[in-house]
Specification:
Layout (H helix, E strand, L loop, with lengths): L1 H21 L2 H10 L2 H18 L1 H4 L22 E4 L2 E16 L5 E25 L3 E10 L17 H37 L1 H15 L3 H11 L6 H15 L2 H14 L3 H8 L4 H9 L4 H24 L11 H5 L5 H6 L5 H24 L8
Antiparallel strand pairs: 1-2, 2-3, 3-4
Helix pairs in contact: 2-15, 3-5, 3-15, 5-6, 5-8, 5-9, 5-12, 5-15, 6-9, 10-11, 12-15
């Protein structure tokens, strides 16, 4: 019995070893990544926020632009659905109807009060404003809404009565789109310029490094101030969006390009590169199929860290008024409102988009760290 049990255990170990040695690089990276709990939690959080941004029109009960504003609930506090109150329990979630009036206690300013005797019940998959799901499919259904034509604002409203919940979801998608386009442009430029400079060396390397250093020395804030002055006021929000994304991509590639160039300078003299050259492989094939894959872990890390950098850059530019502006829904445009002292004292729900921005950046950072450890075969992920 002892020997049979030992053989069985040995058989399991043998199968595990065989699975390990026959696994592809992607399977090994995924297995190491799953063992990192922090990275997995961050990955799930990142996926959830991406899906929230992707399906923002469906999840938003009201149009996030001025067309969907609630003029009777300006600067309104968040409304949390309830199941019970002093009037009893309800199986359906509800909120109270609101009344807007001027009060002598507030120097005749508009005041919103709740009518606790009038419940407005939530409904799901309601018909509302028209949109295109995923930018392609026309639809008018939304996840939730209220009976009797009432409105619910989970994150409250801003000074113009626009729903902050819907604006936040659309802002996440806008910031991710800006980051994706910027990262794609900078990533392609870094691979091409860094790969050519590192593989060929010589005067080509010197010329490309002069260009790289020149771009790295350009201060970003004065550059964007000049670009903001250059952009015409009649440009649409889509034009400003693509313009800012392209500029972020054009100035974001030098760091990764220098890393690729340094790695390729040391790797180009290896025997496997010489063997590929003797077999007649072209320089592009050698760089793409042999040299860059050996640098995968660093490329993945830089690529993932570039996303929060691009999102932070767009947010910072929009926050200081040089990027996307209202009525465009971006995290930076929403955060412009939190710089006022009155907001900190009376309208704290304006800070909700800030929480999503911090969570988005941290999720990218933790996922990038997890992928770095998973892509490095010599990293010790077991603590």
């Amino acid at each position: 019995m002892f020997w049979r049990k030992k053989a069985t255990v040995g058989g399991v170990d043998q199968k595990a070893k065989e699975a390990y040695f026959t696994a592809s690089q992607g399977q090994l990276i995924w297995a190491r990544f799953k063992s990192n709990r922090t990275a997995m939690v961050a990955a799930w959080a990142l996926v959830i926020m991406i899906m929230m941004g992707l399906f923002a029109p469906f999840l938003s009960p009201y149009d996030p632009t001025i067309a969907g504003r609630d003029e009777n609930y300006e600067n309104g506090a968040p409304q949390m659905p309830k199941f019970w109150d002093e009037n009893g329990f309800s199986l359906r979630p509800f909120v109270y109807a609101t009344e807007r009036e001027r009060s002598i206690k507030t120097n005749f300013r508009w005041v919103v009060t709740e009518n606790r005797d009038h419940r407005l019940y939530m409904r799901f998959f309601v018909k509302g404003w028209d949109y295109k799901l995923l930018g392609l499919i026309p639809a008018d259904r939304h996840l939730f809404g209220l009976d009797e034509g009432g409105k619910i604002h989970l994150f409250g409203t801003d000074a113009s009565g626009k729903d902050i919940f819907g604006r936040t979801l659309h802002a996440i998608w806008t910031s991710l789109a800006v980051g994706t386009l910027g990262v794609f442009i900078s990533f392609v430029l870094a691979l091409i310029i860094g790969g050519v400079a590192g593989y060929f060396g010589g005067w080509i390397d010197s010329a490309l490094q002069m260009i790289t250093d020149a771009i790295r020395t350009v201060p970003s804030i004065p550059l964007f101030m000049a670009l903001a002055a250059f952009m015409p006021d009649h440009w649409s929000s889509e034009t400003r969006f693509f313009f800012i994304s392209i500029i972020l991509g054009l100035i974001g590639w030098p760091t990764l390009a220098r890393r690729i160039r340094t790695h390729l300078l040391t790797e180009r003299t290896q025997e496997y590169v010489l063997a590929a050259e003797l077999c007649g492989a072209s320089p592009g094939h050698i760089i793409r199929r042999h040299l860059l894959p050996s640098f995968t872990s660093y490329i993945i890390v830089d690529l993932m860290i570039s996303f929060p950098y691009m999102v932070r850059s767009e947010t910072a530019l929009s926050f200081i008024g040089l990027g996307l502006k209202d009525p465009v829904n971006s995290l930076g445009a929403l955060m412009q409102n939190v710089s006022k002292a009155d907001v900190l004292l009376n309208y704290q729900w304006y800070f909700i988009p800030v929480i999503f921005f911090v969570a988005l950046v941290l999720a990218f950072v933790f996922v990038g760290d997890g992928l770095r450890d998973a892509a490095d075969p010599y990293s010790d992920t077991k603590k």
